Amino acid sequence: MTGRQRLDERTVAGRLELLEELLSGLETTSGPTAERALDAVATLAEVYGEAFARVMERVTAASPELGAALADDVLLAHLFVLHGVSTGEAPASEPGSAFIPLDTLSRRPATSRAAP
Asked: pLDDT tens, position by position, for the chain (116 residues)?
């Protein structure tokens, strides 16, 4: 891959901690702008989750070994768990060492919520 420098595991963990702080800040902020920002993040997460699921279906069908290798990557494994993507594999990391709390992006987009 040329151009952008890849992030090491420590940098990824730091970015995910920052993301969690930013989302927590938005969740404690009232007003329509904060609501729209959270809805945008939740919608993006929902779309990415669908994309991850489609990639894993195709990869695993074509090459079970490659699917297992993707599921063995710590960051990808936790993203798959976060987005509810079944890989058939358990994350290779220690229990409790998840980068992302499972409820971080669990907010439902405005379009999915029932109207009052």
From this structure: 457 888 888 888 888 888 888 888 988 999 999 999 988 988 888 899 899 999 999 999 999 999 989 988 888 887 888 788 877 655 555 444 445 554 545 555 555 444 44
Q: How far apart are CA 53 and CA 80, in angstroms?
A: 8
Could you tell me the two tokens for 51?
């994309």
Residue among 52, 58, 57, 89 at smallest CA distance from 74: 89
Tokens of 70: 């993707």
- 3-class DSSP state of 64: helix
| Total residues belonging to the chain | 116
CB 27 within 8 A of CB 41: no
Q: How far is CA 62 from the centre of its chain?
A: 24
Q: CA 24 to CA 85: how far, in whole Å? A: 24
Write phi, then psi, for 86 (nearest 5 degrees): -80, 125
